[in-house]
TrEMBL record:
It comes from the Bacteria. Residues 139-198 are annotated as: Disordered. Residues 159-195 have a biased composition (Low complexity). This is Chromosome segregation protein SMC. The lineage of its organism: Bacteria, Pseudomonadati, Myxococcota, Myxococcia, Myxococcales.
Length: 660
């Protein structure tokens, strides 16, 4: 589920009238004035209207009624629009996917609420408000402390006898004698903390003070180095985030290449590379073969007709005229051998006789040649037919094999079977070009160049920290021990100050009720939303919550532990375990933020609901805001995050600011 648009008219904290488009991701909503826009309250009034008119308080002026509309995409992927007149009635509409026109669902408040819960997928109001609306009023430090809860008194000892408290009714207020110039309210003096005993050996205690002061300086040096390391780690995180911006594209490229390589190729199936072109020109090849065979058959028929028209060739030895001419020629030749003159002239007749015989012989040879030529034409037709079939087989044979391989009926069905590989190849080429373009972007190249430099600086700083020693106590722990030691010295020098101690005070002096542990309620609501029990939710949340909390507190806390009811114990980096409510208020707030961000991250894997952040970061350390902004931006990759804040730095981190 995510919000698509918010439209307002005369609503407090917004422009007098406007429509604000909301896309997915991490969006920063800038209010028009110094007053923060009540986006969470307006969303709750629209989505969980009770019909009592309390939402009229959201109107900017009382002279004119306020109106608001919220467009959202439900868990069923259908677009809905909730319209309401603040303090009055409203209606729920649904966008028809076919006609793209809105259709009225209901104008009854109860019916609309039931439809939003059942069909659209909204959780109960308490779940949505306590898990997906993050407001400053929800921070533990800003909520009233639990009345009547016992304060933590571990390690503390009361200085009053039972029933003799200085402020008990009927007892006069006790006044402790003070040394001249040392009034309890004087600057630099504080009431002694219960549980701090006067020092038994003042010189030894003062020597210990000097050691602690040296240790404090040393710890601060290490803390400053660690602060630099954390700052560099933050920069490394930003650079790695930029470099990881190509991870999604690389994964898509890898999957596309795998699909491309998995597709069969003509070579892998024993087919020529140009099988697609062969299949496309197969009809033309078949037509050429049929045409050539038809022409050959026509020529063969003509040759057969000519052969039938030729008479049978009579052998020369059976030609009577040939032998007569030869005989006449021989006789004339023999007659020329006689001595008589006139007989010799007869010998000249052998010339025409032999010539006639030669003509008959030549004619016989011509007839033989014609017959032989016709017989050879038949062989030529056979050779031509064989050549035509061989050429056709060389062109069409792979196509017929492809028909068998792909189990299709016609050659035109072959190209579609191989087109997917071509399409995947084009997609791979496009993704490669996009990846090269992203990696050659100046910001990407600058990040790739800076990252090893920053890592080298971190290694140098870590080496310096290692040189300082394997174990360094937390600065505040040393400060607390130093303060207690100085107080014990002061008590030893002024015993009368011990009477000014107040039972129930904490170690730092000053009575304070522990803050409420926010975890049981949050974990219980998360369990209800995920339809599981609290122990299962704890197992799901623990590791990620520790990562968020450690990052926000600069690694002062190493672990978070929950019992079966969700009550929280935190473990400091030095190994000390303590209830989360006994932490400083600001760090309880950081734990609360860590837990809420963890719940949204884990729940969004199953149920996507928008996270509405409304001035919950106001009052936190300015140095932590960029880190919190990056955390919210990370959540924006999992679900829609709408952050109402005027902070310009957070707007730069967002996927897009929206001016309200």
């Amino acid at each position: 589920m995510h919000f698509v648009e918010v439209a307002v008219q005369n609503v407090r904290g917004f422009s007098p009238a406007g429509r604000f488009a909301l896309k997915t991701g991490y969006l920063v909503l800038k209010p028009p004035t110094a007053e923060l826009s009540p986006l969470a309250g307006l969303s709750l009034a629209l989505l969980y209207a009770d019909g009592r008119g309390g939402d009229a308080a959201l109107a900017a002026t009382t002279q004119k009624a306020g109106k608001a509309a919220l467009t959202l995409v439900g868990q069923d992927s259908v677009t809905y629009r909730v319209l309401r007149e603040l303090g009055g009635g409203g209606s729920l509409h649904r966008l028809n996917p076919a006609t793209k026109q809105p259709e009225l669902v209901s104008q009854d408040t109860a019916e609309a609420n039931q439809f939003l819960r059942g069909q659209v997928g909204l959780p109960p109001r308490t779940t949505f408000e306590q898990l997906f609306c993050l407001q400053a009023a929800q921070l533990p430090s800003r909520r009233p402390r639990g009345a009547g809860r016992p304060a933590s008194t571990s390690g503390l000892r009361a200085h009053s006898s039972p029933g003799m408290h200085p402020s008990s009714p009927g007892m006069p207020a006790m006044r402790s004698p003070t040394s001249p110039g040392m009034h309890p309210s004087s600057p630099g003096m504080s009431i002694s903390s219960p549980g701090v005993l006067p020092a038994s050996d003042i010189p030894a205690a003062e020597a210990k003070v000097r050691e602690l002061e040296k240790e404090l300086v040393f710890c601060r040096e290490v803390d400053n180095l660690q602060f630099e390391v954390d700052g560099l780690n933050s920069q490394v995180f930003d650079l790695e985030s930029k470099l990881r911006g190509t991870d999604g594209l690389k994964e898509k490229l890898r999957q596309a290449e795998e699909a491309w390589n998995a597709e069969p190729t003509p070579e892998s199936m024993g087919l020529p590379q140009d099988i697609v072109a062969r299949a496309e020109r197969y009809p033309r090849t078949l037509a050429r073969r049929d045409e050539a065979m038809a022409r050959l058959q026509s020529e063969r028929e003509v040759a057969d007709e000519e052969a039938q028209r030729l008479p049978d060739v009579e052998p020369l030895v059976r030609n009577r005229n040939f032998w007569i001419a030869v005989g006449v020629g021989v006789a004339c030749f023999v007659a020329g051998l006689f001595p008589k003159d006139w007989v010799r002239y007869v010998a000249l007749l052998d010339i025409p006789a032999f010539g006639f015989a030669a003509v008959l012989a030549i004619r016989y040879v011509d007839e033989l040649q014609d017959k032989d030529r016709l017989s050879r034409r038949g062989e030529m037709f056979t050779v031509r037919e064989k050549k035509i079939l061989e050429e056709f087989e060389a062109e069409a044979g792979p196509v017929r094999k492809a028909l068998e391989v792909f189990d299709v009926d016609t050659p035109k069905d072959i190209p579609p079977r191989l087109q997917r590989r071509e399409q995947l190849g084009a997609e791979v080429a496009q993704l490669r070009a996009q990846l090269v373009s992203m990696e050659k972007h100046p910001e990407f190249m600058e990040a790739a160049h800076q990252l090893p430099v920053l890592r080298q600086q971190i290694e140098l700083l870590n080496a310096k920290i290692s040189e300082k020693g394997a174990f360094v106590r937390d600065v505040r722990e040393v400060e607390r021990e130093l303060a207690r030691l100085k107080e014990s010295i002061a008590l030893a020098r002024n015993p009368q100050m011990a009477a000014m101690g107040m039972p129930g005070a904490d170690v730092a002096g000053g009575s304070m009720e522990p803050l409420e542990d926010p975890a049981p309620m949050v974990l219980s609501l998360a369990g209800d939303l995920l339809a599981t029990d609290v122990p299962a939710v704890i197992g799901m949340m623990r590791e990620r919550c520790v990562q968020y909390f450690s990052a926000l507190t600069e690694r002062r806390y190493a672990s978070v532990e929950w019992d079966r009811d969700g009550r929280t114990m935190v473990v400091t980096s030095s190994g000390r375990r303590m209830p989360v409510g006994e932490l400083p208020p600001r760090e309880v707030d950081l734990f609360f933020l860590s837990l809420r961000l963890t719940v949204v991250e884990k729940v969004s894997a199953r149920v996507k609901l928008p996270l509405l952040v409304e001035d919950a970061l106001v009052g936190l350390d300015e140095s932590r805001l960029p880190l919190l902004g990056r955390m919210l931006k990370h959540l924006g990759t999992l679900t829609q995050v709408l952050h109402v804040t005027p902070h310009p730095g957070l707007a730069q981190l967002s996927d897009g600011p929206v001016n309200l």
